[in-house]
Fold this sequence. Notes:
Two copies of one chain form a homodimer.
Chain A: E1 3-8, H1 12-22, E2 27-34, E3 49-52, E4 65-68, H2 76-84, E5 88-90, H3 99-112, E6 116-118, H4 127-138, E7 142-148, E8 151-152, H5 154-161, E9 166-175, H6 177-184, H7 193-196, E10 197-205, H8 211-219, E11 229-234, H9 237-243, E12 249-259, E13 265-275, H10 278-298, E14 303-305, H11 320-326
Parallel strand pairs in A: 1-2, 1-4, 2-3, 4-5, 5-6, 6-14, 10-11
Antiparallel strand pairs in A: 7-12, 8-9, 9-10, 12-13
Helix pairs in contact in A: 1-10, 2-3
Amino acid sequence: MGIKVGILGYGNLGKGVECAINQNPDMELAAIFTRRNPESLTPKNKNVSVINIADINNWIDKIDVMILCGGSATDLPGQTPKFAKLFNVIDSFDTHAKIPEHFKNVDLAAKEGNKTAIISVGWDPGMFSLNRMYANAILPNGKDYTFWGKGVSQGHSDAIRRIKGVKDAKQYTIPVETALSKVRNGENPDLTTREKHTRECFVVLEPDADPAVVEHEIKTMPNYFADYDTTVHFISEEELIKKHSKIPHGGFVLRSGKTGWHNENNHIIEYSLKLDSNPEFTSSVLVAYARAAFRLNKEGATGCKTVFDIAPAYLSPKSGEELRAQML
Amino acid sequence: MGIKVGILGYGNLGKGVECAINQNPDMELAAIFTRRNPESLTPKNKNVSVINIADINNWIDKIDVMILCGGSATDLPGQTPKFAKLFNVIDSFDTHAKIPEHFKNVDLAAKEGNKTAIISVGWDPGMFSLNRMYANAILPNGKDYTFWGKGVSQGHSDAIRRIKGVKDAKQYTIPVETALSKVRNGENPDLTTREKHTRECFVVLEPDADPAVVEHEIKTMPNYFADYDTTVHFISEEELIKKHSKIPHGGFVLRSGKTGWHNENNHIIEYSLKLDSNPEFTSSVLVAYARAAFRLNKEGATGCKTVFDIAPAYLSPKSGEELRAQML
């Protein structure tokens, strides 16, 4: 009998969680919960129950962990505290500035329900945070660098789509190779926004739009593009669908630090991800932490946790003996 | 009042620990313990007590964590269980095949003394093991790769020094770039020993030695060199001292894994280290885990642990609130 997992929200992330559960023999998908009409969903898994969120209370005893697959802007701030009273929950809340507040709300709720909640799980926040933290603990005298990409930024793609005359668009964030090389060489550069990333945009225009006007509007857009070297390509809708429908992403977390009595030795710790599918990778991290939440709750740990609070062994289906013999 | 740390053994690793403690304001070096005549040691820290190991029992109440800096072959199998009865201890035991046995011995001893022991701390085993484990938990359907170097292998350097006619030698293990590229490209290659690493040797000969004979003996040495493409350079003792006295090392841990309902998406997780000083980096990891051992023991956790069992936050001097606000 596996760990019974529920999925709340069946967008890209929820679909990724469905796939990831399928790769983990110790877990089983119990049900998918949705705000939509359940009959409008067609899960990949033909036999799974699809339930309207209004009936979620009937599932309290049938779900070991609920993975919340909503968005950080409007879904999770309400959903995670609400459902942490009823279920062990995992979310991927990624509004960095609001994490302390979200943590507090979820912690209160989870303790009230004697449940275990793990928030901000994924790769950034998530695996990138973990690697920053480990590297800082090991090399206290050093400097951190994070580069994102090459990958699709949903926020920047949306910003382009809101411009008058744009029918559709995809934006790639690209780390600057020379900046990355300087960091790897231990040069500890101070890098401006422009020196770290470039932005490449693929844009489909409405029939009457003026490409020069649209390009100017993109390149001068404050916060999103003005501080970057931005390239704009106008392409057909067919080409956008054919060549830019995937959601790849990734990035690099580096720490460059000194050791020795006179700080004479330099060390570079680098963690990087190259992901064909951003949501599927995030989902895979969520599912590993769902295993941890289930186990921790069984041991009596309640309240809100983050990746910093979870001993790595809780993520693995292997026993302590197996991990020590095979992976140490 | 900081965490009071003892160092047992004052070789390269012990010296590195001394430097690392100096970088961590919440820790202080209480004493260095040695089997040698204490007066023969000259610590970098002028005021620290140097104590013969015979008198270690007088320090039981004055040390929060003892970092054992001996070797895995003959020192640690006896020392770690012995001192885990008396102190919270950290070691860097790295004989992979004997870890399960060492764990058992240390666990019994630490539980007997109500102490916390963390074994096999460093980078491999240690940070590399952690990254293998996290990556396996996230991507169950995948393949692991570890490359070492570029760096000095002490074992291979020693093996060359044992050859008749060799006065001194340094051996560098070098990862093969094309193999690494194939892995990064998601090609999931099956790699032979020869395809993964090359070996480069810098050798100082005794006056009468025949370079051709020595080179042949190195290149055909079973286990150490026969399965690798090996380059041998004969150089002067002066050049060896001038250019090859540092102990750099590093390496790469990669996992290439598939997600999606039809395994249609590939992901690469890569962790790498580029270290100017192998012992100083290892020491820095030991000191971070010493903080964890101290805290865990204060919470009542006893027995033997590995890096898999330690929640990351225990390594950091920052509070949970600080970590969430600054690093998540």
